[in-house]
Fold Nucleotidyltransferase.
Amino acid sequence: MTIEEIKQKVASKEYNFLRENEHLGKNIILLGLGGSHAYGTNTESSDLDVRGIAVNRKEEILSNIRFEQFVNEETDTTIYSFNKIIALLSNCNPNTIEILGLKPEHYLYINSVGKELLNNSHMFLSKKCVQSFGGYANSQLRRLDNKAVRLVGQAERENHILNSIKNAFATFPDKYFPFKDGDIKLYIDKAVQEDYDTEIFMDVNLKHYPLRDYKSMWSEMNNIVKDYSKIGKRNKHAIEHEKLGKHMMHLVRLFYTCFDILENERIVTYRKEEHDLLMDIRNGKYLDDNRQPIPEFFELVDELEKRLDYDKVNTSLPDKPDYKRINDFAISVNERIVKGEL
């Protein structure tokens, strides 16, 4: 489907909700492609995904009326409210930050406020992308078959689990009672469990720490470990529907998008340079005869994780986004709406 064909489709009656819904219509500031068409990994059978942003109306800004997003499942369309997407972008949320990095021709509609947002996209970039993209990538990794992970060795599998836990661990200071660096240490050492070569250990040195917060942290880490034992059942469904290669492709794509943010301080959604690799993964080159990931795929992921570890130490990006600039921009837009200037 060409861009012109996509534009004609979006202009059809099927998408009339974009023009008729009270939250959308003239409130839309940006409309663009999402999913495989945006990444450059689409095939002839790929569905069309549309993503967009709509400013909040005056009454929503000044009252308790809430509008966060509009979803039309029949057309795979999601429109975020301006105020909600500002919060998501500030956390470098992968599903939303990619909207700011589309190819120019992939924007189906954009007005002056939408252009302002794109021109100021750098203010959202920070080291937060390491946790947001890394955590999302690891959630994709946990969808893959633990049998395949074992093929590269139990020790490597334990490393995958530890990386997933570390991504979750990095979010704990924002959610739970604070603790000092080194109070909780996670590492891999020689196993005490039978049939294990190595395993994950914890050193904990907490005093006067809220029990419920500790329980919540423990539950998050425990759930990640449990996820690896559930992957086989989940993967059976994915294999039956030929989706496993797609999960694997998105895992790798997330890493490369994050590398562009950390190394080049830019958002690049369309993955031109990695296109052939991504399509090979999607089309099953890294699956065995039983449609399971082969060891070479996990070796690739290991290399990507090492690059991410290097980037998070050596990037020039700040630890946090430019909150003052972000807030000033959000205030400016909302103020203009209230005054009737938009």
